[in-house]
Amino acid sequence: MLAATIVLTVVMSAVMVPINWNGQGASTAAPKIDTLLDVMIILSSFVFALVMVMLFYALWKFKAKPGDESDGEPIHGNTRLEVAWTLIPTVIVLFAGGYSWAVLNNIEEPTDNPITVDVFSQQFAWSFGYPGKDNAYSEGELHVPLDRQVHFKMHALDVIHSFWVPEWRIKKDNVPGITTTAIVTPDKPGTYQLICTELCGFGHAAMRATVVVEPAAEFRKWVAGLEEKIPPPYLETIRQGTETDPIPVGAGGA
Ligand SMILES: [Cu+2]
Fold first, then answer.
1. pLDDT tens digits, residue range 172-192?
2. What is the value of pTM for the model shown?
3. pLDDT category, 247, cuts 50, 70, 90?
4. What local confidence, expressed as pLDDT, does residue 180 receive?
5. How far does residue 208's CA lie from ligand 1's centre (Å)?
6. How far is the CA of 197 from the centre of ligand 1 (A)?
7. What is the 69 CA–ligand 1 centroid distance (Å)?
8. Which tens digits make up the pLDDT trace of 43-76?
9. What is the distance in A from the centroid of ligand 1 to the CA of 122?
10. From the CA of 162, how far away is ligand 1's center (Å)?
């Protein structure tokens, strides 16, 4: 049975691990999260294989003979089996939890000079506030510098939304009344899409914004050219939001 379980685990992992489930990666977190997913696939394959092998073994081994109409034997527990089916899942879940925790700690490790960008979400649009110029503000288009850690401070103006750029792998809820933080270091220049991934109303499916990752000099030029300022009610939202991020973050200069 153990041999069959191992063979099935290896076959399923060999089919599923090479698939690029998350698509292109464009942040320092992406390869770490993709590796985490691969490890979870292997663990899940093992659990699935174990259950299937035991199921089919039982079907074959304990099949009733033709004409046998008698009741099954009553079963009064099996200590060894019960210890095994408690211990194995406990070890797997603790390992998965510990490993995920370590990855999250690693990808959220603050660097020396992060930049802070405010994210405002509302039905059904995104807008952004930048440091470096007095409350510079853009709607529907987010620019960030390449290879520099960005701390996105999330402010929901009405209902819950969720910030997701698939290439960065990070997803974070925007919740009215509190300020949540997503930490990302984009490491590939290009244009991406910010997608709302929390069903927030009728226009949810269209709640997207363009994300441009560009070298620092171009980013500074772009922010300097912004004419609009963060609207006063939005500044009030920032002031009133309860900070949930334990890491003290100053307004990083551009
Ligand atoms: Cu939405």
1. 999 999 999 999 999 999 999
2. 0.84
3. low
4. 93
5. 9
6. 6
7. 58
8. 999 999 999 999 999 999 988 888 888 888 888 8
9. 8
10. 7
Task: Quickly tell me which residue has 């750029």 as its tokens.
Answer: 165
For ligand 1, the distance from its centroid to the CA atom of residue 161, given in whole angstroms, is 5
Spacing, Cα 228 to ligand 1 middle (Å) = 24
Helix (H) or strand (E) holding 224: helix 216-224
Q: Does residue 169 contact residue 25 with C-beta atoms inside 8 Å?
A: yes
State residue 144 phi and psi, 5-degree precision.
-140, 150
Question: 150-156 and 115-122 as β-strands: parallel, antiparallel, unpaired?
Answer: parallel
Cα of 124 to ligand 1 centre, how many Å?
7
Q: DSSP for 20-85?
A: -TT----BTTHHHHHHHHHHHHHHHHHHHHHHHHHHHHHHHHTPPPTT--PPPPP----HHHHHHH
Q: Tell me the C-alpha distance between 194 and 165, whole Å.
A: 5
